[in-house]
């Protein structure tokens, strides 16, 4: 059973860069079957799609975040990463990583990690 | 741009009730529609994929239907563990701003 686990700082200062990693276990990330996605959820609000990365390194990003987001994949470590630059308090949220089957569903999720943007 | 409208935004019901949640899209998406359940403090869990395919391990009281632009999630007889927030998600277009519905919070009456 594949498992995903987010990791990274829980507190980021305004204007700095948020960096998170999703470690994948139980299966290889080195597969052309899935995308690997990031989703976030501010407290008390709905789910917001951030973006995804494919094995080749190709990406899709939410247009509303595209100018600040980079998602990358590291097959040697079986993990993928999120960088979000120039953060503000509006970026405070629980960040989830998920496995994304194209034209299908987000079938496996990490437990989520809370990132707070505050000085 | 594809728009998604999920309704109602909240719903009060009792154990044993039958409830239906609706998700509408502004353009046809065939059956590229998924449903997730999110309990408080937990990650979303995939319930139904491709409009009507129940995921393994999901109780049969959950069902999904629809195609094109209108979809429904039905819980035939609510159990205490079903009180949660439910989201629809379209996988027809490249993910972006309109990937998820707004969510339906199902509360105990």
List key phrases describing it:
heterodimer; A: 119 residues; mainly beta; 7-stranded mixed sheet; 4-stranded antiparallel sheet; 50% strand; B: 109 residues; 6-stranded mixed sheet; 10 strands; 0% helix; globular
Outline of this structure?
The complex is a heterodimer of chains A (119) and B (109). With 119 residues, chain A is an all-beta fold. Chain A contains no helices and 11 strands.
Topology:
The complex is a heterodimer of chains A (119) and B (109).
Chain A: E1 3-7, E2 11-12, E3 18-25, E4 35-41, E5 48-53, E6 59-61, E7 69-74, E8 79-84, E9 93-100, E10 106-109, E11 113-117
Chain B: E1 4-7, E2 10-13, E3 19-25, E4 33-38, E5 45-49, E6 53-54, E7 62-67, E8 70-75, E9 85-90, E10 104-108
Parallel strand pairs in B: 2-10
Antiparallel strand pairs in B: 1-3, 3-8, 4-5, 4-9, 5-6, 7-8, 9-10
Please give a structural write-up:
The complex is a heterodimer of chains A (119) and B (109). Chain A is mainly β and 119 residues long. In chain A, 0% of the residues lie in helices and 50% in strands. In chain A, the strands form two sheets. In chain A, strands 2, 4, 5, 6, 9, 10 and 11 form a seven-stranded mixed sheet that branches. In chain A, strand 4 (35-41) and strand 5 (48-53) form a beta hairpin. Helix content of chain B is 0%, strand content 47%. Chain B is built from no helices and ten strands. Chain B has a six-stranded mixed sheet with strand order 2-10-9-4-5-6, with no helix packed on it. A four-stranded antiparallel sheet of chain B has the order 1-3-8-7, with no helix packed on it. The chains are: A mainly beta (119), B mainly beta (109). The A-B interface holds A 37, 46-49, 51-52, 60-64, 96, 100, 102-107, 109-112 and B 32, 34, 36, 42-46, 49-50, 55, 87, 89, 91-92, 94-97, 99-103.
């Amino acid at each position: 059973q594949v498992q995903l686990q987010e990791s990274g700082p829980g507190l980021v200062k305004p204007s700095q860069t948020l960096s998170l990693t999703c470690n994948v276990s139980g299966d290889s990330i080195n597969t052309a079957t899935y995308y690997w996605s990031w989703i976030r959820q501010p407290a008390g609000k709905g789910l917001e799609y951030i973006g995804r990365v494919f094995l080749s390194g190709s990406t899709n990003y939410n247009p509303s975040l595209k100018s600040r987001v980079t998602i990358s994949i590291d097959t040697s470590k079986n993990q993928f990463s999120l960088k979000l630059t120039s953060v503000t308090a509006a970026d405070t949220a629980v960040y989830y990583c998920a496995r994304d089957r194209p034209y299908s569903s987000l079938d496996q999720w990490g437990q989520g990690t809370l990132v707070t943007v505050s000085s | 741009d594809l728009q998604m409208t999920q309704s109602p935004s909240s719903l009060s019901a009792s154990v044993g009730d039958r409830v239906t949640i609706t998700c509408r899209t502004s353009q046809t998406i065939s059956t590229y529609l998924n449903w997730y359940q999110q309990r408080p403090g937990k990650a979303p869990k995939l319930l139904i994929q491709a409009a009507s395919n129940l995921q393994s391990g999901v109780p049969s009281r959950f069902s999904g239907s629809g195609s094109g632009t209108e979809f429904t999630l039905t819980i035939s007889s609510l159990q205490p563990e079903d009180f949660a927030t439910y989201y629809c998600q379209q996988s027809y277009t490249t993910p972006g701003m309109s990937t998820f519905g707004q969510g339906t919070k199902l509360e105990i009456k």
